[in-house]
Amino acid sequence: MTASPAGFLAIYRREIRAWFVTPLAYVFLAAFAFAAPAFAFNVGRFFDTNRADLAPLFAYMPWLLMILMPALAMRAWAEERDRGTLEILLSLPVSVSSIALAKFAAAWTVALGALVSTTPMWVAVNYLGHPDNLAIAIAYLGTFLLAGSYLAIGQALSAASGSQVTAFVLSVLAALLLTMAGLPLVTDSLSGTAPAFVVEALAHISVLERFAAFERGVVGLGDLIYFLSLMAFGIAAGGLQAGASREGGR
Amino acid sequence: MIQVSDSPPSPPDLQHSLRPTPFLQTLAIPVWSSPATQVIAVSSRLLPDEDCLHAMLTVDSVVKTFGRRAAVDRISFELTTGEVLGFLGPNGAGKTTVMRMIAGRLEPDSGKVRVGAHDMIQDRRAGQRLVGYLPEGAPAYRTMTPREFVSFCLSVRGYSGSALRVARERALDRARLGCEANQQIGTLSKGYNRRAALAAAMAHDPPLLVLDEPTDGLDPNQKHEVRALIREMAMDKAIIVSTHILEEVPAVCSRVIVINKGRIVVDESPDEFSGRARSGRLEEAFRSLTRTAAEAAK
């Protein structure tokens, strides 16, 4: 599968336009801009920490993204299938990899917009004290990569399922599994029944452990590769699933 | 008259066998320099060499099964530039499946589909550049206007700038979209929705048009306009039109293929087809060819 730049750009622009021509993107951005600080202020007790950093904001990001990214991803392929426009897309001289990449890039761009909507909090902590801005930037990078991972997996499930609702539910479940895999709640309950290597492997695939490094302001090569691999896997799985419909009808 | 041979004549690569007319020369478009202009190079604005009068489309022993049911069972035919093929058959006969395979949307289980010189599996994207496809139900992005939708399809095909604008406006004009070209497709009537999809299918002026029920759901005036458009385009294209409206056959087609249960049962001229019924009625000829043995016994 080779990518074609003209096809990629045209589909990317159409996807972005499709987000903003309806209230969908605005509702999503507003929900994120409201929910992220709400978690930080109310649950994370932002002011009570007496520290000039954004730890209360990033601590709840995996849980927030776990719900919101599947909402962004669910329409990617399922809507095309529902409305019959997949018929148009797959009859155009463009590779499925270009389509999958363009769909992912467009959704990731909207996710970036959502993250940008939280930057007033970054400005506020700079006004209130002297935060480590590099560490905050790295935490933002980690959040962006985490959002991309959830999106890619969500889009793969959108390609595999028949409806947007099914895609959303499956994506939330997959994100929940990926996030909770490393929590003591899961590992402790499995340690008695499952072999040790399974428990250890589960702890390693958890996004929480990888994301924690970025939260601390540390960029590890392993963590970068982990998130990029998740994204590559999700995009490829989505593209392959959609491309497989050439062999089997719908 | 199924034109199949063991070694069908190899059609030339159209991109290298067409010569520009003065029309393009006067537009001063750099014909051989970009993907968009490569598409222009195979357009009807260019006259085909004599070699190109060989098969524009070759469908060779194509089989497609869904589960255990053979939707298409060893279908073979060829189509040359200037022919308008009426593709008839009862619901579920396999018409749409064949058209999807010709458009590169679906891959056959066995057999070959070749558009121009391009095999639709090994060289799919090159073949798809030569095809304009109107899928069944004329799907289109509902939040786009017809103008945006046609632009989108052209951009994916590599068009940009003035080449895109010229092709888009010509297609919108030919599909007679008028002011509705700037209205969201989701708010348009079924007729205009179909015209938008038709405009997108023919915007790159492809040498092969595959139209799956282009007049379904249109009022008599709209049907007349679409038929006139097909006749107008037939001069320099190969066109396949599937339809359930039998009076369309003598109105636009130069050849008829009837398929039933995935197999070709008739491949002949419209006159020969209507001559199959003593009354000369197309409906009677169609029924005698496609009704099941059980139905015939009743």
How are the elements arranged and paired?
The complex is a heterodimer of chains A (250) and B (298).
Chain A: H1 5-21, H2 24-43, H3 55-59, H4 61-73, H5 75-83, H6 85-89, H7 96-116, H8 119-128, H9 133-160, H10 164-180, H11 184-191, H12 196-205, H13 207-215, H14 221-248
Chain B: E1 18-20, H1 22-27, H2 35-41, E2 46-48, E3 55-66, E4 69-80, E5 84-88, H3 95-102, E6 110-115, E7 118-119, H4 124-128, E8 131-134, H5 146-156, H6 161-174, H7 190-202, E9 208-212, H8 220-233, E10 238-242, H9 248-252, E11 255-260, E12 263-268, H10 270-274, H11 282-290, H12 293-297
Parallel strand pairs in B: 5-10, 5-11, 8-9, 9-10
Antiparallel strand pairs in B: 1-2, 3-4, 3-6, 6-7, 11-12
Short description:
The complex is a heterodimer of chains A (250) and B (298). In chain A, 80% of the residues lie in helices and 0% in strands.
Description of the structure:
- The complex is a heterodimer of chains A (250) and B (298).
- Chain A has 250 residues and is an all-alpha fold.
- Helix content of chain A is 80%, strand content 0%.
- The two termini of chain A are 20 Å apart.
- Chain B has helices at residues 22-27, 35-41, 95-102, 124-128, 146-156, 161-174, 190-202, 220-233, 248-252, 270-274, 282-290, 293-297, and strands at residues 18-20, 46-48, 55-66, 69-80, 84-88, 110-115, 118-119, 131-134, 208-212, 238-242, 255-260, 263-268.
- In chain B, strands 8-9-10-5-11-12 form a 6-stranded mixed β-sheet, sandwiched between helices. A 4-stranded antiparallel β-sheet of chain B has the order 4-3-6-7.
- The longest helix of chain B is centred in the middle third of the chain and has 14 residues, at 161-174.
- Chain B is globular and about 50 Å long.
- The interface between A and B is medium-sized, with 27 and 33 residues.
